[in-house]
Amino acid sequence: MQPQDRLSVQRALVSVSNKEKLEELGRGLAQLGVQIYSTGGTARALRQCGLEVQEISHYTGFPEMMQGRVKTLHPKVFAGILRREDVRQDLQAMQQHGIVPFELVVVNLYLFEQTVAREDVTWEEAIEQIDIGGPSLIRAAAKNFRFTTVITSPQRYEELLEHLRQGGVPLAWRRERAAEAFSHTASYDRAIANWFQRQLHPGELPQWWHLGLERIGGLRYGENPHQQAALYRCHGWPQPPGGLASLKQLHGKELSYNNYLDLDAAWRSVCVLKDPAAVVIKHTNPCGAAVDDQLATAVQKALAGDPTSAFGSILGVNRPLDQTTAEVLAREAAFVEAVIAPGYEPQAMEVLTTVPSWRKNVRLVQVEQLLDEQGSWHLRQVAGAVLVQGADWPSPLRSEWQVVTQAPVPEELWAQLEFAWAVVAQVKSNAIVLAREGMIVGVGAGQMSRVDAVRLALQKAGDRAQGAVLASDAFFPFADSIHLAVQAGVKAVIQPGGSRRDAEVIAACDQHQLPMVFTGRRHFRH
Q1: Looking at 251, 283, 483, 512, which residue is catalytic?
Q2: For residue 5, what pLDDT band results from cuts at 50, 70 and 90?
Q3: How far apart are CA 317 and CA 448, in angstroms?
Q4: N or C: which end of the chain has fewer CB within 10 A?
Q5: DSSP character for 339?
Q6: Which tens digits make up the pLDDT trace of 431-441?
Q7: How far apart are CA 258 and CA 176, in angstroms?
Q8: Strand partners of residue 434
């Protein structure tokens, strides 16, 4: 006997922790004449809706016990799910032992992840949320998709009922739900395994790390048109608040693969700044950044940092975008690919979606909560493997910094040094930034030598280097960069220190009475 293309349902086993849409499902099945078998809480919920339910314990002749730990783990249940309609011995066994077939299994699992997300959760509470019978039922039904339909999500209930109204559940749909079911149980087991690892080895990188990727949506292509691409939500480790998985696109064309990379860089960069701030990103590097008491002024200064590179850029701001800021953007930015912000005032949306030069091109993106990656992990793929490291979340620890030169840092330059240090951590190595008056005026990114990065930053800054401060993401291997900075009029330098030639670099600064700060912390970004 071949499996029917459309499978009718006479009996359904329903046992769910998530009771969303349960009444609609129960009423729909009852109207179709389906007998519903169920367990404890689900049976009570269905009866409260006035529906007739057969208790599994009455069917098996075996009571629920151990405070619900043992309910469905019985041969009469699993044989009814796993029976093969085209195997004579299966049908004989069912008849011999009084077993009825279950053509439909609707099960979702205990709320383990929600429970362990609580800071005060105990081991006992967590362990009791490890479902045993549920995954077994789901896997059995999914394995036997030829003769059983398995449903694990309330979002599938209406589709299921519609198929049944049309004469039965199609085989292709049953296969899809089986695949979904195995992903559901795999995700559940992954969450449990990872929780155990975190409890046994807190703050450490575990021996096994089970990651899950859930497809959010497809992209037109990757970095280049010949590459396939999609966006996935990551499961399997604690997620920092404010990540791009919660991104909402409010306006504009579909986001591309490269847009997401640049949006991520913009959001990471702007969220480390505490004052109202704007960061302009081009090819994942800040080409402009600024802070100010007013967001509109910060945006204006950030765009002015490198107007040429700002064309076709991504703009990030760390405050809700208001009308004044929107008007600055529409007036002063020739073309911006996308804007990412924690919110948009209605008047700002009106400006950015109606001004002719903006409405067709700009993508407006919202992430309501600012990113905080402290204590989180970064994953990066290399050929055949994955690298994992703790997030490099820069925080100005001025109390740990050391002025290593004879010349002290003038008080008015400390804020500029802190700002430059926060921004240089977001620039690809070798990285140099020049800052003055709360804005970045020159960036040297991704150069093979540090002195070339200094030259590039000074070239971008031009006359604006006069009176600026210079930040370097790693130590200066030679004093040549210092001499170039002095010639350009730089007034202070901040860097990690740690070179064998630190003494030579300090001596060069002392020669020119140039203050220099060692932070003791490097911020490479490869």
Answers
A1: 283
A2: confident
A3: 30
A4: C
A5: E
A6: 999 999 999 99
A7: 31
A8: 442, 470
Residue listed under structure tokens 């740690």: 498
The answer on pLDDT for 2 being more than 50 is: no
Average pLDDT rounded to a whole number, residues 191-206: 85
DSSP assignment string, 86-138? T-HHHHHHHHHHT----SEEEEE---HHHHHTSTT--HHHHHHT--SHHHHHH
Going by pLDDT thresholds of 50, 70 and 90, the confidence category of residue 405 is very high
Reported as a single tens digit per residue, the pLDDT across 309-329 is: 999 999 999 999 999 999 999
Q: How confident is the model at residue 41 (pLDDT cuts 50, 70, 90)?
A: confident
Cα–Cα distance between 204 and 112 in angstroms, integer? 22
Residue 68 pLDDT greater than 80, yes or no? no
- Indicate the fold that domain 396-518 takes in CATH: Cytidine Deaminase; domain 2 (3.40.140)
Residue with tokens 């800054």: 461
What's the CATH superfamily of 6-200? Answer: Methylglyoxal synthase-like domain (3.40.50.1380)
Q: What is the DSSP string of 154-211?
A: GGGHHHHHHHHHTTSEEHHHHHHHHHHHHHHHHHHHHHHHHHHHHHHSTTS--S----
State yes or no: pLDDT of 1 exceeds 50. Answer: no
Catalytic residue at 143?
A: yes
Instruction: Report the alpha-carbon distance of residue 78 to residue 101 in Å, rounded.
Output: 9
Decide if 76 is catalytic: no
d(CA 482, CA 189) in angstroms, rounded, equals 56
Please give the CATH number for the structural domain made up of 214-237+244-366. Answer: 3.40.140.20
What lies within 8 Å, CB to CB, of 347 at 6+ separation is 322, 323, 326
Q: Beta 277-282 vs 313-317: how paired, if at all?
A: antiparallel
Residue 154 has pLDDT above 90, yes or no: yes
Catalytic residue among 143, 235, 253, 512: 143
